[in-house]
Design goal:
14 strands, elongated, five-stranded mixed β-sheet, alpha/beta, Metallo-beta-lactamase, Chain A, 302 residues, 20% strand, single chain, 7 helices, seven-stranded mixed β-sheet
């Protein structure tokens, strides 16, 4: 098994701001879960005129904590990594207290809808960024700048933000220290996710700040482990198929034997994403419609 250098320990207090570096602060929302670890970490960049990254869920208590953390300052930008419900809905609440514009790649599913793919309604369908950003755009602030690094895969509109002043990258849910990301089609896409991981390996960021959990202090080691892990999952799928397990529901119990059963439905979505990628590459076939309940076989099989 691939050994991923997970990092889960984090010292913090809900509602309190933590100074992480000279130009980075964080407030964590009280929305812990199996998918958010301790909760959504909202980052604050700069001093005086500041940016907020991922205002989080529509939680008035968390928005009030952000306001306390920035008392006497002006929020000039709201940067959104993607439109899951624990990341972007807080923008609407925070907008009641600031004239800051929101920045994001687009609406939920924007990276798929443009290609004619209908995505599921599981995200923040109300969010529409004031400013649509693209890969390589640089957002200028007061003493800080944020480079937009488009990283589709977890969602089709996922963006990381690089802070060159500190050689830091805010990775949203694309790369987290405590867990791998769920890739759930049709908006989630394994081919895009793997390409986005490779994209990060070509960068020279010194530290990652995910929206959930602690910092990743050895980014390339971590990303390489993630790439190897996904390739290992593909090999597990091939073995399952060779052994006659041709449905996802029959693969998940053995592939995720060490994962709590309540997380198996999410695991099934990631297996489906991997199978779609294998089908695209011609390594696996699917006789019926390509769906999570379909029968899969190794290419060339009966």
């Amino acid at each position: 098994m691939v050994a991923i250098p997970f990092r889960r320990k984090l010292d913090f207090e809900y509602g309190e701001v933590s100074q992480l570096s000279p130009g980075i602060r964080r407030v964590i929302a009280r929305n812990p879960s199996a998918f958010t670890l301790y909760g959504t970490g909202t980052y604050i960049l700069g001093r005086g005129n500041v940016a907020v990254i991922d205002p989080g869920p529509a939680d008035p208590a968390h928005i009030e904590a952000i306001r306390r953390a920035t008392a006497g300052e002006t929020i000039t930008h709201m940067l959104v990594t993607h439109t899951h419900m624990d990341h972007s809905p807080g923008c609407k609440l925070l907008a009641e207290h600031t004239d800051a514009k929101t920045f994001g790649f687009g609406r939920h599913g924007a990276g798929k809808i443009a290609a004619g793919v209908q995505v599921e309604e599981g995200g923040d369908m109300d969010f529409e960024p004031d400013v649509h950003i693209h890969d390589g755009d640089v957002i200028e602030g007061d003493g800080w700048s944020a480079e937009c690094v488009y990283t589709p895969g977890h969602t089709s509109n996922h963006v990381c933000y690089a802070l060159p002043e500190e050689s830091a990258l805010f990775t949203g849910d694309h790369v987290m220290g405590w867990s791998t990301s769920v890739i759930s089609p049709p908006d989630g896409d394994m081919k895009s996710y793997m390409a986005s991981l490779e994209k990060l390996l070509r960068r020279s960021d010194a530290v990652y700040w995910p929206t959930h959990g602690p910092a990743i202090i050895e980014p390339k080691l971590h990303v390489r482990a993630f790439v190897a892990h996904r390739r290992e999952r593909e090999e597990q799928i091939r073995r399952c198929l060779a052994d006659g397990a041709e449905y996802i529901k029959d693969m998940v119990p053995s592939m995720y034997a060490s994962v709590p059963r309540q997380l198996h439905p999410a695991a099934a979505r990631s297996v489906f994403a991997a199978l779609r990628y294998l089908v695209e590459r011609g390594e696996v076939s699917c006789g019926a419609d390509l769906g999570i309940d379909a029968r899969f076989r190794l290419a060339g099989g009966a």
